[in-house]
């Protein structure tokens, strides 16, 4: 079973459990770190996420994983919030980030650059437009984007001043 197939399978198994507790499964990764495997769930809700929320989801998901036993090797289960600089992976993540500042890393350079930062203006499943600090509108096809994140707007200063 390929890694991506395993993640999709696990998401289909786990998402209904997370949703039954009134949370959203924002993302899921199953990855090797050193000699150990980790199943990492990122949960979200309109109220935000606390440690108690993570613990509640962890207990319920553990019960389902113990019952269904879908993972052959040993692993550690981690439950976390997506964080302030959350990754944008699904259409709904991008749609919720319209008019917010995001960062984008491309697979291949565009005009000599792989990294761009700006305000997400439009999004479709095919592509997006990003308003750069210069005011320029950058149109990108989604299949060119390796990684996108919502920027931590608390620490973002679009016009830094010299000290």
TrEMBL record:
It is found in: Cytoplasm. Keywords: Cytoplasm, Ribosome biogenesis. InterPro entries: Ribosome_maturation_RimP (IPR003728), RimP_C (IPR028998), RimP_C_sf (IPR036847), RimP_N (IPR028989), RimP_N_sf (IPR035956). GO terms for biological process: ribosomal small subunit assembly; translation. It holds the Pfam family RimP_N. Residues 13-85 form the Ribosome maturation factor RimP N-terminal domain. Residues 88-151 form the Ribosome maturation factor RimP C-terminal domain. SUPFAM superfamilies: YhbC-like, C-terminal domain, YhbC-like, N-terminal domain. GO terms for cellular component: cytosol. Gene3D superfamilies: Ribosome maturation factor RimP, C-terminal domain (2.30.30.180), RimP-like superfamily, N-terminal (3.30.300.70). Required for maturation of 30S ribosomal subunits. PANTHER family: RIBOSOME MATURATION FACTOR RIMP (PTHR33867:SF1). Belongs to the RimP family. This is Ribosome maturation factor RimP. The gene is rimP.
